[in-house]
Design goal:
25% of the residues lie in helices and 28% in strands. It is of the alpha/beta class and 415 residues long. The chain folds into two domains: 159 residues, Carbamoyl-phosphate synthase small subunit, N-terminal domain (Glucose Oxidase, domain 1, 3-Layer(bba) Sandwich); 235 residues, Class I glutamine amidotransferase (GATase) domain (Rossmann fold, 3-Layer(aba) Sandwich). Strands 10-12-11-13-14-19-18-17-15-16 form a ten-stranded mixed β-sheet, with helices on both faces. A seven-stranded mixed beta barrel has the order 1-2-8-6-4-3-9. A two-stranded parallel ribbon has the order 5-7. Helix 7 links the parallel strand 11 and strand 12. The chain is globular.
């Protein structure tokens, strides 16, 4: 990506503004209405209201396509203090339906800041609300479960009864193909690696000398996933979500990657048959929605969680090593463990969430396939689980060399 292209990703950081406060309201389908001050776009948007427990990385969160169709509430109280910049964009624009914060700090103080979160959301058409009691809102979601809401920063749409009625009539995430809203329209090459950091920082590992070809299916892919795959020596072609298997195989890839993405995995149209065909021929790795779609393609089922896992402090245990990683997660659905056993596929559950026991990783015992529910690329979040990219590289490399490698053998090696 050129410097000129990057400069257009975020609005310029100019002089401070002293604009008068604008009214905003968040109405839930259960009849609760929260009042606050508006920022971002002047609009009324509905979506599933969820909360994220990350303490840093709000720009990466609002630009993660996995939040399409959702109104995201930040539990950390102060948002906006480090501004926004082109390098922390996780996609071409924000796709979420709305953004909820306790306190908006819209005069950033950080050497990397090139813009404000307010303008970033405004240009993307996403409304935001600040000044409400986010603790009370989060408790309501935690106790009653995620529900549909309407966030309005439109001065003409502030009536409580009208907003609640709209929230009650709006659809939830189930059954809607949100991947179709966020996937790329045409294939493209990705070559950008990780941010080099600052002067004096310990350098990262050198990239492998042997280049491998990778086709990455874009279900709503985060850029930091692609950056880390570049660091593992992959030459990457990103393709739209419904690219036929024959077209992907025509690119002569050494491996296939299934990305993260938004919404109900069972509602993504046309991809399960594609993944089944690819899984018969190439090494395959899936993250988050890609993990769920792989589970469905192998005959499993998914179920919706009460309020999902969203944040950078989830405990995920690797059953092959017994080690626990603190993980970045962002999902509202999970693969049902019993369904995989009933499907008769020789698949091992390799990772579990220690909070609720949900399936967090899968590996096939006879084919080079594995997947993970959480986000090993973090962005934001801890880097405990970054080893998954090394495992994928090793599996693809061994398969390219003609070895009989399986996802389960890689998982059990505990690389």
């Amino acid at each position: 990506m050129s410097d000129s292209a990057k400069s257009r990703l975020v609005p310029a950081l100019g002089a401070g503004r002293a604009a008068p406060p604008r009214p905003a309201a968040l109405a839930l389908a259960d009849g609760t209405v929260y009042r606050g001050q508006a920022f971002g776009a002047e609009a009324g948007r509905d979506g599933e209201v969820i909360f994220n427990t990350s303490m840093t990385g709000y720009q990466e969160i609002v630009t993660d396509p996995s939040y399409a169709g959702q109104i995201v509430t930040m539990t950390y109280p102060q948002i906006g203090n480090v501004g926004v910049n082109p390098f922390d964009m996780e996609s071409r624009r924000p796709f979420l339906s709305g953004f909820v914060v306790k306190e908006l700090l819209d005069e950033p103080s950080n050497y990397r800041a090139e813009g404000r979160i307010d303008e970033l959301l405004r240009e993307a058409g996403v409304p935001g609300i600040s000044g409400l009691d986010t603790r009370a809102l989060v408790r309501r979601i935690r106790d009653a479960g995620a529900q549909v809401g309407v966030l309005s920063t439109d001065p003409a749409l502030q009536d409580a009864d009208a907003l609640v009625a709209r929230a009650r009539s709006a659809p939830d995430l189930d059954g809607r193909d949100w991947v179709a809203e966020v996937t790329c329209k045409t294939a493209y090459e990705w070559t950008e690696g990780c941010w080099p950091g600052i002067e004096g920082q310990i350098p990262g590992a050198e990239r492998p000398a042997q280049r491998l070809r990778l086709v990455a299916y874009d279900f709503g892919v985060k850029r930091n996933i692609l950056r880390l795959l570049v660091e593992q020596g992959f030459d990457i072609t990103v393709v739209p979500a419904t690219t036929p298997a024959a077209d992907a195989l025509a690119l002569a890839p050494d491996a296939i990657f299934l990305s993260n993405g938004p919404g109900d995995p069972g509602a993504v149209q046309g991809v399960q048959a594609i993944v089944r065909e690819l899984a018969d021929q190439k090494p395959l790795f899936g993250i988050c929605l890609g993990h769920q779609i792989l589970g469905l393609a192998l005959g499993g089922e998914t179920r919706k969680l009460k309020f999902g896992h969203h944040g950078g402090n989830q405990p995920g245990q690797d059953l092959s090593t017994g080690k626990v990683a603190i993980c970045a997660e962002n999902h509202g659905y999970a693969v049902d463990a019993g369904s995989l056993e009933r499907a008769g596929e020789p698949v091992d559950i390799t990772h579990v969430n220690l909070n609720d026991g949900t399936v967090e990783g899968l590996a096939h015992r006879t084919r080079p396939l594995f997947s993970v529910q959480y986000h090993p690329e973090a962005s934001p979040g801890p880097h405990d689980a970054a080893y998954f990219f090394e495992r994928f590289r090793l599996m693809a490399e061994r398969h390219a060399a003609g070895e009989d490698v399986t996802g389960a053998s890689i998982a059990k090696a505990g690389v």
